[in-house]
Specification:
The strands form six sheets. The protein has an eight-stranded antiparallel β-sheet, covered by helices on one side. The chain has a four-stranded antiparallel β-sheet with strand order 1-6-11-10, with no helix packed on it. The chain contains 13 helices and 21 strands. The C terminus is likely disordered. It is an alpha+beta fold.
Length: about 550
């Protein structure tokens, strides 16, 4: 909880209640939690209905040997508004100056101590729903909720059947696919970078950010991974459509770093009063990186388009891709804020490399030789710039032009086939990363304005290192990294942005979509490498995750 007593929550109380276990129902996002109580146990089933005419959060309670009390403590607007609670004819109404929410249950509702309370007698089942649309309460009853649960299960099983994978890491791959689907907006197709805000990268620190937006870079990585996984869903089509609408909202010749779920530019950052998670402040709404130039984010759009076009054998929304490529041609030489969204703009090597490689990839789909030549010649100019300006004195890829530091993103230079995995520059860069950034089996990133050794290991970057070692056919090394990353998954398979190797604490927002996307990619690469090893065909991978 971000703001302790100021924050809202939904509690379940019963004599002797202790948590036993929880799991998703089969291949769905329907969560079943079991509690032990005096004399036995009961379960709570939570779901957000995918059925027509229903919405909100639905909770089903199985019979319990002791009475169960459920209380909803509403605290609108991050605890900044005092809610008005009213017992209405059809539901209890929670209102503030902006919104109204409605609560209805199987048993009588009462207002006690600023909470909405419902008591389920021993031996009886019960239910309770929280919605923001009163129409969703029409004819609500147990039978309708059970039907909605079944329809939701059917919808999720259909989603999960869009991929087919059998391998050593089947469970985490499907969990990652589910995590990305849970972060996907049904209406717009936008994929949130994470579901949370202000969970700290360092406990008690100030690096607490709001990731509840559709980050261009992250979403492109997500879609690329799903395309590579052979998803039969509409992720690729919806991604390009989202881009088309988003590009029109900001009326610029480039994409801004992130958008809200309605394709609109996201708000500037605001601070919310409160104690913060484990006293980590500030609590943020919005993100100050909203107007940064991030060249790698634009390049990731081209990489995702390349994956989509390879699969579809056609070029939907090609006009957007042309405009993006041409923007990069005109602006690659500018300083940007890089993949880590630093406050200081620099000639970040990872941005230059990604732009060069994305132009080379998308040039294969050029309409004519003139267009193809423009993109390829620009890529060559960028390569020359990197060679002349973005190398350290000992021959490694620098974080930015003039720097002597290295960063874990350099592992992707081989993954993108910008450079060979066994080149002198790559080997020197990876050696430097191993020497300076490794902790346990995982890796820290490099930041300009903060000592990244003081935050957790960066899980996506660690996965990229595993992908690099797969390209060198070092399967055992790659597997040890993958397993170390998975050791930080929750019981439901969710992965955070970072983790503390010493304490096992999860750090940063969760679930982090592009960590799951990176994991899908490395699992596919690992299975391919295992297969090639078994066949004694030790040749370079011809396609790896972006």
């Amino acid at each position: 909880m971000l703001v302790d007593e100021e924050g809202g929550y939904w509690s379940i109380e019963a004599a002797g209640k202790t948590f036993s276990k929880r799991a998703y129902q089969d291949d769905t996002a329907i969560l079943i939690t079991e509690f032990s109580v005096n004399g036995g146990a009961f379960t709570v089933t939570d779901f957000m209905p995918a059925s027509t005419g229903m919405s909100g959060i639905c909770r089903l309670f199985s019979p319990s040997p002791v009475p169960v009390t459920t209380r909803i403590f509403p605290k609108p607007d991050y605890g900044r508004s005092a809610p008005k609670l009213t017992i209405g004819k059809d539901a209890t109404i929670v209102s503030d100056h902006k919104y109204e929410y409605y609560i209805k249950g199987s048993h009588p509702l009462a207002i006690k101590d600023d909470a909405v309370e419902m008591v389920i007698p021993s031996g009886e089942s019960g239910w309770c729903v929280l919605v923001d649309d009163k129409r969703a309460l029409k004819n609500i009853c147990l039978e309708k909720l059970l039907a909605g649960q079944q329809q939701t299960a059917t919808k999720w099983k259909g989603l999960m059947s869009n991929i087919a994978y059998e391998g050593a890491y089947k469970v985490p791959l499907y969990q990652s696919y589910k995590a990305i689907q849970l972060l996907t907006h049904e209406h717009s197709g936008g994929i949130l970078a994470a579901a949370t805000t202000s969970l700290p990268e360092k406990t008690g620190g100030t690096r607490n950010y709001d990731y509840r937006y559709v980050w261009l870079r992250d979403t492109a990585m997500d879609v690329s991974a799903l395309v590579r996984a052979g998803s039969k869903g509409r992720e690729a089509e919806r991604f390009l459509h989202f881009l088309s609408l988003a590009r029109n909202t900001n009326k610029k010749n480039l994409f801004v770093p992130f958008y809200d779920l309605d394709n609109k530019t996201a708000p500037d950052e605001k601070f919310i009063p409160g104690t913060g998670y484990k006293h980590s402040q500030p609590i943020r709404i919005g993100n100050s990186a909203y107007d940064q130039l991030q060249l790698d984010a634009q390049g990731n759009v081209l990489l995702a388009a390349k994956e989509i076009y390879d699969q579809k054998k056609e070029k939907p929304h090609w006009d957007i891709i042309i405009r993006t490529a041409d923007f990069l041609v005109d602006n690659w030489h500018q300083k940007d804020h890089g993949i880590w969204e630093e406050e200081t703009a620099e000639h970040f090597t990872s941005s230059k490399v990604l732009v060069a490689k994305s132009l080379e990839f998308i040039a294969a789909y050029a309409d004519n030789e003139q267009q193809r030549h423009k993109w390829l010649s620009t890529a060559q100019q960028i390569r020359q710039f990197v060679t002349a300006n973005c190398m350290t004195k000992d021959g490694a890829y620098a974080v930015y032009a003039g720097s002597e530091a290295v960063d874990v993103t350099a592992a992707l230079y081989a993954v993108w086939w910008y450079d060979k995995p066994d080149s002198t520059a790559m080997k020197q860069t990876i050696k430097r990363i191993e020497d300076a950034h490794k902790e346990g089996e995982l890796y820290h990133r490099h930041l300009i304005q903060f000592n990244a050794q003081r935050e957790g290991v960066f899980l996506a970057g660690s996965v990229w290192m595993a992908q690099y070692y797969l390209m060198l056919k070092q399967l055992d090394k790659a597997k040890s990294i993958i397993d170390a990353v998975l050791s930080f998954a929750t019981d439901l398979g969710f992965l955070p942005e970072e983790a503390n190797v010493q304490t096992g604490a999860l750090l940063g927002n969760i679930p982090q979509a592009f960590v799951h996307a990176s994991l899908i990619g490395v699992i596919l690469d690992y299975e391919k490498a295992i297969s090639e090893s078994a066949d004694k065909k030790l040749k370079p991978l011809d396609k790896v995750s972006l």
